[in-house]
Input
Amino acid sequence: MATILVVDDSASLRQVVAISLQGKGYTVIQASNGKEALSKCDGSKINLVVSDVNMPIMDGMTFVTEMKKLPRYKFTPVIMLTTEAGDDMKNKGRAVGVKAWVVKPFKPDQMLTAVAKLILP
Output
């Protein structure tokens, strides 16, 4: 089954996302900021990333930019799960390789649909 890395500084939000994903049979790895998430990109298989934009230490855009520099994760799809709904931020996201944008508060079904579309077999 696919492994998904969930990156958000809110533990409660990570929990909600993890429970939704695990309910569909996905394996979930969690990180509380971009720097911690980057340390989890250690060669292990990650099929998809769900990341917040605004986090302390390293924000989501910087994390995605850095992760995409790693050959093993260059093509790993990323969903941004964030309160940021502006086109400027979405365009920045697309520029660094974000594939989908889900705005908080979100419905788990909405996120699961995006995950199912992007997950690589």
The beta strands are 3-7, 27-31, 48-51, 78-82, 100-103. The radius of gyration is 13 Å. The first helix runs from residue 11 to 23. The CA atoms of residues 65 and 96 lie 6 Å apart.
